[in-house]
Predict the structure.
Amino acid sequence: MRRAALRLCTLSKGLLAPSRGLTQGSQNPEKQRVFHIHEVRDKLREIVGASTNWRDHMKAMEERKLLHSFLATSQKGLPPRRMKDSYIEVLLPLGSQPELREKYLTVQNTVRFGRILEDLDSLGVLICYMHNKIHSAKMSPLSIVTALVDRIDMCKKSLSPEQDIKFSGHVSWVGKTSMEVKMHMFQLHDNEFSPVLDATFVMVARDSENKGPAFVNPLTLESPEEEEIFRQGELNKGTRVAFTSMSLLKMAPTAEERATIHEMFLNTLDPKTISFRSRVLPPNAVWMENSKLKSLDICHPQERNIFNRIFGGFLMRRAYELGWATACNFGGSRPFIVTVDDIMFQKPVEVGSLLFLSSQVCFTQGNYIQVRVHSEVASLQDKEHMTTNVFHFTFMSEKEVPLVFPRTYGESMLYLDGQRHFTSMSAPVTLKKDYLIEP
């Protein structure tokens, strides 16, 4: 969810650099080293006993049923963990290993942000497994999945495909069956790693068959800094609850929002007629219905996760790339991602599903474009469509963009929802030439 204030570029070196308590004092030497990006998915497969062979997935899932005995019957029976226990660093060596670049490369010689979303999703899951590690068991009895991308804020730093990238992260808040994960991304610049983004994900723990909730290890706090991080996690949870309760799907718009919509309606009435049905666009404006783009994907086994559902990072990448194309088509120039937030994973996507993505511009202001992407799936046997995700992206264009006007009441609600997501930013972002984060 959106915070009351945009945390854009709060990644100062003092805040970004993990405290000494998070990086030192661990008894596990594996946590002292930096993982390679390729090791993340391999490590996850090892933790859950997943096979790289699609034909073996049924056998692997049957073996996971035997892990039920390792599940805790209450959270009190689980040992507390420290933030440093889940802290890990991962290197994406685009500079030192040029053979990795093509997967991340755009035609403009920048880094594909959609690929970064995939890496963040995998990293978030691995961090949670580190927090809940059972030393007496080779495989984890937990099935940890992404429930929500709470927020991703970008910094005004370039992403070059010719310099190494480093990720870091740790569990920042814990409930009974859910965990918040803080992740940061840096890129090498003048022989030191500079901040690129700050991400907050919420993960949930399920049982070994991914059929019901499971308890996670509690979190113990060791410093005032960690207490503040945990307190922020509590505030984030409260904000999500409040945001949901005020949803336009549940509550009517505020008086101010109703006035905004009515003023927009009046601005589209034809002054030559005395009719509510005669609508004309003001100068430099576009009807919302004309800002849509759609796509269809067949969800092949190649895109599966360690639990043989479609990888959430793949869904985010496809949604982001369609959203970027929508912003590009609408604004007439290359857009740049500013913020990603409020991506709720409502329903898992099965392998073999048809994935329908629908993207549209729902709010604009100055150079900013707010894009909403709606995701639905249908099986080959059942033609019924079911919503799985709604994605919210804030882009910045190189030039001022047209205003977008709703024509119907439903579109008016989309406009207000987009405005709510956008206006939570406390400060505008200055677009610089080195701010190059694209599909």
